[in-house]
Amino acid sequence: MTTPITRILGEFVSALRYEQIPADALPVIHIGFTDCIGVMIAGRDEPPPQLLKSVLAPAPGAATLLFGQGTASAPDAAWINGAAAHALDYDDVALRGHPSTALVPAILAEAEALGATGLQMITAYAAGYEVWAELVSREIDQHHTKGWHPTGIFGAIGAAAACASLRGLNAEKTSHAIGIGASQSAGLMANFGTMTKPFHAGRAAHAGVIAARLAAAGFTASPDAIEHTQGFLAAVSPVGRFDVETPLQAAWQWRMPTSRLSVKKYPMCFATHRALDGILDLLKETPIDPRSVRNVTVSISRRNTKVLRNHSPQTGLEAKFSMEFAMASALIAGRATLAELSDGFVQRAEVQDMMRRVSIEPDDRYDPNPNANGYAIYDQVTIETEDGRRLESAQVNLIRGGPDLPLSRDELRTKFDGCLQAGGLAASAVPLFDALMSLENCPDARRLSALAAR
Q1: Residue 153's domain is classified under what CATH number?
Q2: Residue-wise pLDDT tens digits, 316-374
Q3: Which residues, in sequence order, are CB contacts of 180 under 8 Å at separation 6+?
């Protein structure tokens, strides 16, 4: 029997109150807002948000643009800010995608327009995250393999749920918002490594704001837009193995405390991170002259080989989706930071030469850990040198910054400080970080942009 998913999600979101959020979910939400706003500020002057701002040419409005670059209507601010948050591919990861980069810009923009409190913003994030988690759980196959970017397809629905929560919509109108969001779901894997990938995130945030506003005004959507045979789950399913029969967990079982968020240490696709951890640890123990490297072999899941589609990148954007570049950066620079993700570094002769020595071995043994999200049972790097040495990294099955090996508050603060320095707001790092990590105490969303301006 088909479960009325759309309706029950609408009921869940409309009834959700801050007091119902589990205590162990609150740190996840603090991290989601803090890390997302940090990387948004770091990416605010990147071409994707700046070009989008130029083309949209938004009139002044109730929401802040890029923490100090004017104002716009909430939908336009969500769109531009979302693109900035994903522009560096440095934002958090969970639920097969990047939840905060779609949820936070939508919530922040609409909360500024409404004068919402931190408590309301936290509740909205919880609603959007849990709706996203519920939908992801109903597909056994990986959406990436079909060509869908999960951030784009789930982000529009999650952001719609979050904004419906902010607006206090009733169950019926919230279900309509979810259905409207579902019809705006989009994002193609083929556009990874281009400006269109961060566009997906911004567009999802924009879609969420618009969906909730339309639903509030009386705009309707199908009451079974998610579970219908021609609805969202069927449309995006890679091979049709989706579940519309299991009762919803969103009504009683919270996923956030277990799925949580992974915070990126490196500004690259998350599929490179386990291998980067492995090779950097190996090089720390056994320094290697890059000129002595004959070849590098990286073992990762077959799914991740498809995500990392750029084998000979020529730009910083392309390099974010290249395991070959990740290994070359580690060997030549001893790190993979924002400084290495530049066109100039990528095009250096020794970097291009090193990338040609890297090969990828797909591994079809998938990690059963529910937080693994399409990773192999482990990732491993093997380096062979011209003098015949064979060096192997550890078999890495946990990512630093992931749910099972999280960054400490100090490590998160270090990343946040670096992001604000990169975005030209270093002086605002301390007050803004503290405010975001205690968001429930914020009396008005507009206080956050004021802290950044100060």
Answers
A1: 1.10.4100.10
A2: 989 999 999 999 999 999 999 988 999 999 999 999 999 999 999 999 998 887 767 78
A3: 160, 210, 211, 214, 215, 219, 221
